[in-house]
């Protein structure tokens, strides 16, 4: 006669119930609902599970399964994207991380770039062994995103067009101006490129430097002539830097852009 599987200890079986109901990230409200506890008791239960090594605290009021022994390998956090809505919402994954997602680059970055409307006190934060790089964004500018499912969590990520515009707005989040230029070149070769969408997003973002950088870089690409012409109609006054992280001693008059020597063209002053 086959033996029945051993019963889990009471505390462990309660944790299994919470994990099953909560999804990828556990909050106090999940414990309240699953175990019919008040919030104080639920918080105490979470603290106990952390002390026992079954859960890890990844943020204020946010927990994940800490080990395979907690509830099997399928419940251990193996995709840090699922932490973004729990820790940084309203937010989306953008910049160089979104560029990887949309196959604009083959370069692999060690961090996850998050655009968040939360106040950012530390721009680089390590959570559950993953490095997150944060950039504050006005909540009114949270547009141009798509939701992707990672395990049981729906995670917002900038669409391919918004990814390009965000990196033009701040080349640092795109891995620097050269990497941004490479991503734009890849975008211009895509079947789903949409020049009008780029212009629309740039207008909504309301940073004149975006049009200057986009026009300059598009003009250098064999596929970018038409896009460059669109940018000419949106140039604002004053000069911007091609890359704020680099000196720009050369002025490209047409694009009202200050560029490093390596980017300057003969006769374009």
Give a verbal description of the structure.
With 269 residues, the chain is of the alpha+beta class. The protein folds into two domains: 10-65, Arc Repressor Mutant, subunit A (Orthogonal Bundle); 80-231, Beta Polymerase, domain 2 (2-Layer Sandwich). 39% of the residues lie in helices and 18% in strands. Strand 1 (55-59) and strand 2 (62-65) form a beta hairpin. The N and C termini lie far apart (89 Å).
**Strands of the largest sheet, in order across it?**
3-4-6-5
Class by alpha and beta content: alpha+beta
The CATH top-level class label of the largest domain: Alpha Beta
H and E order: HHHEEHHEHEEEEEHHHHHEEE
Q: Please name the CATH architecture of the largest domain.
A: 2-Layer Sandwich
What overall geometry do the principal axes of the alpha carbons give?
elongated
Averaged pLDDT? 89
Tell me the number of helical segments per DSSP (H or I, 4 or more residues long): 11
How widely separated are the two ends? 89 Å
Number of strands: 11
Strand content: 15-25%
In CATH terms, what is the fold-level topology of the largest domain? Beta Polymerase, domain 2
Biggest sheet details:
4 strands, mixed
Instruction: Kindly provide the radius of gyration, computed on alpha-carbon positions and rounded to a whole number of angstroms.
Output: 23 Å
Low-confidence stretches: 3-8, 70-75
Q: Which bin fits the share of residues in helices?
A: 25-40%
């Amino acid at each position: 006669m086959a033996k029945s599987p051993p019963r889990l200890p009471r505390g462990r079986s309660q944790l299994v119930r919470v994990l099953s109901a909560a999804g990828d990230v556990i909050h106090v409200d999940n414990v309240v609902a699953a175990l019919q506890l008040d919030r104080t008791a639920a918080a105490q239960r979470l603290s106990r599970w952390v002390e026992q090594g079954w859960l890890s605290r990844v943020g204020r009021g946010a927990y994940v399964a800490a080990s395979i022994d907690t509830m099997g390998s399928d419940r251990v956090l193996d995709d840090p994207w699922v932490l973004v809505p729990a820790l940084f919402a309203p937010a989306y994954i953008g910049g160089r991380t979104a560029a990887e997602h949309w196959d604009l680059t083959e370069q692999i970055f060690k961090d996850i770039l998050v655009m968040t409307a939360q106040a950012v006190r530390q721009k680089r934060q390590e959570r559950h062994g993953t490095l997150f790089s944060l950039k504050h964004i006005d909540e009114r500018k949270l547009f141009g995103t798509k939701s992707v499912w990672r395990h049981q969590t729906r995670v917002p990520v900038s669409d391919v067009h918004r990814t390009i515009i965000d990196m033009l707005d701040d080349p640092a989040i795109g891995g620097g101006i050269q990497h941004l230029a490479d991503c734009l070149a890849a975008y211009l070769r895509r079947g789903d490129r949409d020049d009008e969408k780029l212009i629309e997003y740039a207008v909504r973002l309301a940073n004149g430097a975006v049009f200057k950088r986009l026009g300059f870089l598009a003009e250098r690409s064999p596929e970018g002539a038409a896009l460059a012409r669109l940018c000419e109609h949106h140039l604002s006054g004053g000069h911007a830097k091609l890359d704020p992280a680099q000196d720009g001693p050369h002025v490209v008059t047409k694009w009202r852009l200050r560029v490093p020597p390596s980017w300057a063209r003969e006769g374009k002053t």
